[in-house]
Each structure stands twice: as structure tokens, then as C-alpha cells.
């Protein structure tokens, strides 16, 4: 009787154990497949173009087409500016002045832009001068970036809590140049950016709206070329539609956005944010 009982138990165990074992095998194979996928997703060396959580250059047909059609943003001695590009730049930007010709003496032989690398995450903060930075407390968030690009005369001293204290690059027109502190490593005069790039930004991104792109928008477009991750701060008009600055009181209440297509510029920046190409703060 005992033998028969044991035999029946073994048979019943086999009846349930074999299907259970098959399920375990199938589950193991499935989990291993999931692990393989998740590992590839987490391992930037295998499937990513950079080491950031989300890379600008991640495969995106819309963005790839936009970047492929862009000229090199920097002038170089091996770049031949066409007459059409030069004339557009001269007429529209008011930058051509005899006393500024010396700036061209610092143009390098080649204009290399360092592309993305799986082993590097180059984060950039593009810091505009909008009054919406007041009270934002973005300072530490801005300074956390590898590259912090400011424009024109936007100060940091006295505004550190909202705009940070770090500056690695500054973009400005010659007529808005100011005395810089020792924290700025590199200055990009808009004058020595490639006229073809500026014309491309005006035509491809702004659809020829406005006389020419603002310094801020040029800087956003430039950051798309040199950064792996772009965080944008301090852009946008006030409630009356005026461009105001965090460091001064607006005197001209009818300024709007001057000769720039401010609404179109902000629309494009929002589009880049919605497409998850940049992160726009203070919307």
C-alpha cells in the first residue's frame, strides 16, 4: 500500500512538475531576452551615440535632416563664403565695420566641430537674459552643466541664485561686447560665425521671419551643433510681449521683440522641446 501511494504521488508530481518546468524554461528564455534588450538600452557603448540619458544625435529622421542641411557654424580659412552669403550677412546683421576686421585674424585654418562620442556626455546650458529668470532659483541647475553659454552683457554677479555663476562661453555681437570676468573660456563673436550658418538659421529654422536671428536664437542653434544635451533657460517675452532682461528694468514698454521674430524664435524653441531635442525651463 505504501509503495502504491508513493507511486501515485510521483505520478501526480510528474503531472504538474513537467508543465511547470517547461514554463520555467520558457520564462528563463524570455527574461534573458528582456535582459539582453535592457542591457543594450542601458549600455551607451552598444547602442547610443553619446553617454547622456538622451542624446541630441539619437536617430531621428527629422533632426538628422535638419543637421545634415546645416553649414559648419564656424568660419575657417578653408571655407569660401559665397557672395550671396556675405551680402546677406553684411546687409542684415550690421556687423561689418572696419574696426572689427581684426577679429578675422583669429579664424583658425579649419573649423572642426567635435561630434558625439559613446564615452562622453557633454551637457550644455544656454542661458538667455529673459526677466523670467528672476526668482527662478535655477542657478545650481545651470552651473551643473559642463558648458554654460551666456550672451551679450548678461551678468552673473548678484544674480547667482537665479542664473548661476559659471560661464564657459559667451556669444555676442561686437557692438554689445562687455568686459568679461576670468570664468569665460571662449567668446564667440557673432561676426565670426559662418555667414552661411547664420543665413541657414534664418531661412531653415525661422522661415525668413524677422530681419535676422537674435543672439539668443543663434546660440540655441549653435548648441545643437556642439552639445550632446541642451538645457535652455531665460527665453521668452513678458506678459505684454516684450523682451525684458533679468538685470534691468524695461523702459520701452512698446519694445516687443525689436527687429527679431521673437514669437517665431520661441515657437521653434518650444518645438525642439516638444520633440525632446532640448529641455526648456521656465515656460
TrEMBL record:
Disulfide bonds join 124-227. GO terms for biological process: carbohydrate derivative biosynthetic process; sialylation. Keywords: Disulfide bond, Glycoprotein, Glycosyltransferase, Golgi apparatus, Membrane, Signal-anchor, Transferase, Transmembrane, Transmembrane helix. It is a single-pass type II membrane protein. GO terms for cellular component: extracellular region; Golgi cisterna membrane. Pfam families: Glyco_transf_29. Belongs to the glycosyltransferase 29 family. This is ST3 beta-galactoside alpha-2,3-sialyltransferase 1. It comes from Salarias fasciatus. The lineage of its organism: Eukaryota, Metazoa, Chordata, Craniata, Vertebrata.
Amino acid at each position: 500500500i505504501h509503495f502504491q501511494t508513493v507511486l501515485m504521488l510521483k505520478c501526480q508530481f510528474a503531472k504538474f512538475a513537467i508543465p511547470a518546468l517547461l514554463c520555467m524554461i520558457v520564462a528563463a528564455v524570455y527574461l534573458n531576452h528582456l535582459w539582453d534588450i535592457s542591457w543594450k538600452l542601458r549600455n551607451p557603448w552598444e547602442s547610443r551615440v553619446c553617454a547622456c540619458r538622451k542624446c541630441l544625435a539619437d536617430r531621428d529622421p527629422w533632426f538628422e535632416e535638419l543637421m545634415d542641411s546645416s553649414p559648419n557654424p564656424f568660419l575657417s580659412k578653408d571655407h569660401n563664403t559665397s557672395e550671396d552669403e556675405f551680402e546677406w550677412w553684411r546687409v542684415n546683421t550690421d556687423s561689418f565695420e572696419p574696426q572689427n576686421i581684426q577679429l578675422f585674424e583669429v579664424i583658425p585654418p579649419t573649423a572642426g566641430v567635435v561630434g558625439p562620442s559613446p564615452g562622453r556626455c557633454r551637457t550644455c546650458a544656454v542661458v538667455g537674459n529673459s526677466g523670467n529668470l528672476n526668482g527662478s532659483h535655477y542657478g545650481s541647475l545651470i552651473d551643473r552643466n559642463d558648458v554654460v553659454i551666456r550672451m551679450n552683457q548678461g551678468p552673473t554677479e548678484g544674480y547667482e541664485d537665479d542664473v548661476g555663476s559659471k560661464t564657459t562661453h559667451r556669444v555676442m555681437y561686437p557692438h554689445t561686447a562687455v568686459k568679461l570676468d576670468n570664468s569665460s573660456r571662449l567668446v564667440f563673436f557673432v561676426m565670426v560665425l559662418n555667414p552661411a550658418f547664420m543665413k541657414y538659421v534664418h531661412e531653415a529654422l525661422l522661415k525668413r521671419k524677422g530681419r535676422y536671428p537674435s543672439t539668443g536664437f543663434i546660440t540655441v542653434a549653435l548648441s545643437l551643433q556642439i552639445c550632446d544635451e541642451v538645457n535652455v533657460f531665460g527665453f521668452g517675452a513678458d506678459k505684454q510681449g516684450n523682451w525684458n532682461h533679468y538685470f534691468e528694468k524695461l523702459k520701452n514698454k512698446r519694445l516687443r521683440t525689436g527687429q527679431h521674430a521673437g514669437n517665431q524664435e520661441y515657437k521653434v524653441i518650444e518645438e525642439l522641446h516638444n520633440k525632446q531635442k532640448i529641455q526648456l525651463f521656465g515656460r
